[in-house]
């Protein structure tokens, strides 16, 4: 299996429930953290473009004003193509501090597997706690009044890549996100395991 073929980017558009991005010309658009602050559109990849981080490929969401572009985690149940996977990669961040929870993978046989999910705040680029990698580093953030540059404040805004391991050898059919709306996800990509996709459940 070619390495790029092993990655499956998921379409999260039906599950987006938050607009966390605004343009410099429309900084009143969106509200990532509950106080009107947003990621600067100009610092992020193009809408619907492929973004590669350390070999993992993601589909970045639509950045246009008035468009939801990320999931605030509220227990969403996301069906996925039935297959055997060994890891879920995601692009995201929490709105403040360090947040932890559990993500669940549902098998075709009705079982489930849990994996730890930790996300550092969107301004913690210098002190990521859970082994995340910087996928996109931003110059700062938008608030309704202006673009705030943060290079002198000891903080670093951005979007982080995180991985949740999948250990079961059974085919999966869905992902269940935790109810923790302070955690946000912009994109998710599954990695197929090196086994036959047609493997029957044991």
Set down the secondary structure blueprint.
Blueprint: E1 7-9, E2 21-22, E3 39-40, E4 50-53, E5 56-59, E6 71-74, E7 77-83, E8 85-94, E9 98-107, E10 112-120, E11 133-137, E12 140-142, E13 147-149, E14 158-165, E15 172-176, E16 179-192
Parallel strand pairs: 2-3
Antiparallel strand pairs: 1-16, 4-5, 6-16, 7-15, 8-14, 8-16, 9-10, 9-15, 11-14, 12-13
Q: What does this 3D model show about the protein?
A:
The strands form 5 sheets. Strands 1, 6, 8, 11, 14 and 16 form a 6-stranded antiparallel β-sheet that branches. A 4-stranded antiparallel β-sheet has the order 7-15-9-10, with no helix packed on it. Strands 2-3 form a two-stranded parallel ribbon. By secondary structure, the protein is mostly beta strands. It has strands spanning 7-9, 21-22, 39-40, 50-53, 56-59, 71-74, 77-83, 85-94, 98-107, 112-120, 133-137, 140-142, 147-149, 158-165, 172-176, 179-192. It has one domain (4-192). It is built from no helices and 16 strands. Strand 4 and strand 5 (56-59) form a beta hairpin. It is globular and about 50 Å long. The chain is 0% helix and 46% strand.
């Amino acid at each position: 299996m070619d390495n790029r073929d092993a990655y499956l980017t998921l379409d999260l558009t039906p599950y987006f429930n938050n607009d966390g991005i605004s343009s410099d010309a429309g900084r009143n658009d969106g509200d990532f953290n509950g106080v009107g602050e947003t990621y600067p559109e100009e610092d992020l990849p193009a809408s619907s473009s492929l973004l590669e981080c350390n070999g993992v490929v993601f589909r970045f969401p639509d950045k246009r004003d008035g468009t939801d572009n990320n999931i605030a985690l509220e227990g969403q149940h996301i069906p996925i193509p039935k297959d055997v996977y060994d890891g879920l990669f995601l692009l995201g961040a929490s709105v403040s501090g360090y947040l932890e929870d559990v993500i669940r993978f549902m098998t075709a046989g009705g079982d489930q597997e849990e994996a730890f999910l930790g996300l550092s705040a969107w301004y913690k680029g210098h002190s990521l706690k859970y082994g995340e990698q910087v996928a996109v580093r931003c110059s700062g953030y938008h608030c309704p009044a202006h673009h705030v540059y943060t290079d002198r404040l000891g903080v670093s805004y951005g979007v982080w890549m995180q991985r949740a391991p999948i250990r079961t050898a059974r085919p999966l059919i869905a992902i269940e996100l935790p109810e923790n709306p302070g955690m946000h996800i912009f994109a998710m990509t599954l990695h197929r395991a090196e086994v036959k996709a047609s493997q029957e459940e044991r």
